[in-house]
Amino acid sequence: MTMLTTPEFWLALMQIILINIVLSGDNAVVIALASRSLPPAQQRKAILFGSVGAIVLRIVLTFFAVYLLSLPYLKFAGAVLLLWIGVNLLKEDDDDADLEGHSNLAAAIKTIIVADLVMSLDNVIGVAAAAKGNLVLLVIGLGVSIPLIIYGSTLILKLMNRFPVIITIGAALLGWVAGEMAFSDPSINAWAESHHNMHLIPPVLCALLVVAAGKFLQGQNRQAS
Predict the structure, then answer these.
(1) What is the pLDDT of residue 33?
(2) pLDDT band at 117; cut points 50, 70, 90
(3) pLDDT tens digits, one per residue of 9-29
(4) How many Å separate Cα 134 from the centre of its chain?
(5) How far is 129 from 181, CA to CA, in rounded Å?
(6) If phi over 0 gives left and psi between -120 and 50 gives alpha, with beta otherwise, what is residue 93?
(7) Which of 32, 23, 39 is nearest to 111 (CA)?
(8) Using CA atoms, how far apart are residues 171 and 163, in angstroms rounded to an integer?
(9) Cα gap 96→98, rounded to integer Å
């Protein structure tokens, strides 16, 4: 367990925690909207069972993501996806506003699981990329997501509303991880090792790109409305 004493381990763990905090906001909205028409007692059940079901599916997806990211060129695709997720995070699109609420517990749980699964692609790719194949980090990252989704949803939304800089930092972090992911693609291993002094350039450029593009599109959205 010597890796627990390395700064790289704790830095990656903080990245995973921050990614989970920022990207669990949309999942919290889904849970709230899907269960809003239920009686209070059933709301708690819908949140618990829906979240547990979604997390189990997320664990399966994450382990698949770890394997896929070990294949040549797929890290480039994952990096592009992370950039897109980060930009969209800053656009403040309210795509979940039309999600239907349910008065039936089973239907609400099903909606939560399906919607969370679809929306969890960002969490899965982000956590898998930040873990860099480290199973200990991966398990901890998934463990962190459980209380964040079940218990911390309301708090996360309040913090994001009160401190919008958290969203910007999270989006920049996704860009940073995307740059690291692209630089570590197996297809350019030899080149990357011979140009190790450039390893910070892609993360910095991608982080700046996400923030710049996201803020630009955010401004365009506000002008359009």
Answers:
(1) 59
(2) low
(3) 888 888 887 777 766 665 665
(4) 17
(5) 6
(6) beta
(7) 32
(8) 14
(9) 6
